[in-house]
């Protein structure tokens, strides 16, 4: 990015405004891609913990905190600087979750039931459709609730997951 800024400065100083605008467009694209990569990493973390929850039929404080913080971070990242539009629209999440699901299975297989399942075994056990549905329920909250309200509403949804009733009684 440093070279792009040098080129931008040079283009402006030399009056090559079309070149400068092309560099600005390139920088905007790079910024958008970086934000989307960050969002994808939080989606991956979200899916891993939803897989663990579903297969182990329990919810730990650590998993709940990871799910909650993933959703909160996605909310922050997804809102564009203009505060009125989003990088990822509500109807785009499912495709992104589908893209990350296989990697989430691989990573979760190291942790679920102390690593006793191979990725293919875990993929056969996990109900992909339900996990994606649960993730979508959580992601849609990011459009409808303020950051202050979000944790409480997420906890309500977490309490409906396997082991959620026991978990909510402990907190």
Automatic annotation (TrEMBL):
Looking at the record's lineage, which domain of life comes first?
Bacteria
The family database entries (Pfam families) matched by this protein are listed as: DUF29 (PF01724)
Any idea what this protein is called?
DUF29 domain-containing protein
């Amino acid at each position: 990015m440093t070279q792009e800024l040098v080129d931008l400065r040079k283009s402006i100083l030399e009056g090559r405004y079309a070149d400068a605008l092309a560099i600005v467009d390139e920088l905007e694209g790079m910024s958008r891609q970086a934000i989307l990569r960050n969002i994808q990493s939080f989606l991956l973390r979200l899916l891993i913990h939803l897989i663990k929850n579903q297969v182990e039929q329990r919810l730990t404080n650590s998993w709940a905190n990871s799910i909650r913080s993933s959703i909160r971070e996605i909310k922050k990242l997804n809102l564009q600087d203009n505060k009125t539009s989003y990088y990822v629209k509500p109807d785009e999440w499912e495709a992104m979750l589908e893209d990350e699901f296989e990697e989430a299975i691989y990573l979760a297989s190291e942790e679920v039931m102390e690593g006793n399942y191979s990725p293919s075994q875990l993929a056969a056990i996990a109900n992909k459709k339900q996990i994606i549905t649960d993730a979508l329920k959580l992601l849609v909250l990011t459009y409808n609730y303020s950051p202050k309200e979000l944790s409480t509403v997420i906890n309500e949804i977490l309490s409906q997951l396997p082991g959620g009733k026991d978990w909510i009684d402990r907190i």
